[in-house]
Design goal:
Elements (H helix, E strand, L loop, with lengths): L6 H19 L6 H8 L13 H23 L5 H13 L6 H5 L3 H28 L8 H18 L19 H13 L23 H8 L25 H13 L5 H29 L3 H13 L2 E2 H8 L3 H13 L3 E6 L2 E9 L1 H22 L4 H20 L8
Helix pairs in contact: 1-2, 1-3, 3-4, 3-6, 4-6, 4-8, 4-9, 6-7, 7-8, 8-9, 10-11, 11-15, 12-13, 12-15, 13-14
Length: 415
Amino acid sequence: MPKRVDHEQRRGEIADAAWRLIAERGPDAVTLREVSAALGVAHGAPAHYFAGRAAIVECAFRRALDDLDARVARRAAGLSGVAALHVFCEEVIAHTGTPFARVAASGPGPAAVLAEVTARWRTRLAARIEEGRRAGGIVAPAPDGVLVEQLLALLHGVQALAEPGSGGAGTSPGSGGAGAAPGEVVAAFLAGLGGGAARAGTAGPGGDPPAAGARSPGRAAIARGGADNSMGSVDGSVDGSGNGADGFLAFTDVALARAGDRLPGTDREAMALVLNLHRIAGSLVYDLESTVHRPAGWSWSAFRLLFTLWVAGGQEAGRAAELCGMSRAAVSSLANTLAAGELVRRTPTAGDRRTVHLSLTDAGTDRLVAAFGTHNRRESEWAALLGADDLAALNTLLVRLARAAHRADWINRRT
């Protein structure tokens, strides 16, 4: 009798092998051949469990992030406030050898996973910051929501600057293993929450002791609170509190200065463009989703699909995915959910029942139109942060950049 194989167990083994490849060489190293070799099985065997390499990378990424969350939950059991924040940051910093930002950029599936997990982290970080406020360990004047976004931006920035196989926490690109830039940046921020930098060997913000048994330079730096690695020397942009003249942009300033110092020849203007576009886009999407779309009963991704069908009319599911800039799998899952809520109609295409045509129901149209009014008013509030001339200039430049990117045949992009 053939040996019975546990399907989910084998999927987990394949995903874990893929994550080891990602840790060593980045997401491009994941191929069916490489994964098969790592497992010692016949080439093509993983194809019995996954639709392709993209599905393997997505599954591996989700498992890695779920494992991270599980470790945080175990270590932070019984902790709250700033002490719990330290644990969370330590675990994320410990993964700079497997950069999440790079994995997320490898395809729409991983990008959706990171967006989902980031939303989960927002909720948990907000709770920890609220606890810290109540306990007196957090006195920073910025609103809690801003602190959450600053911390997420710092951690995602650390990931974005990491290199595969860089040795884990505290090792920054080009540092040759010297220094602990990620730990220093996050340590300065955490110290600033309590009104100043903690001193080495003393309690951290809110009276929390330094993490015991620090396993890496990044973890030790967080425990120190950055006292002996002040960020104030970096272009004067970040003081000892980690907040600087503009806390939201503090990490960008540090990143530009440090990358330029450690990697001569770095194009700082290009780096600033990408960092600033990424951070402001993330903040804008989070604001719209939390103030408009979650209250409307759907996610940002669901709104994008509904809006696409409203603007373009009914579309075959694959074409809708292209217009939304999402994967077919993501659109299929969203369509099922929205159809269950009677907002989207799913109709088999004549002549090919495997292909599904998506369109808005009357209820979906009404809900979308009502939500879009709120959405656009929020857009107007964002636009009002700039003067009319600056807004027109920014829109002109963004359109110019988008058109140039569309013409460049070396750029990987979704439609």
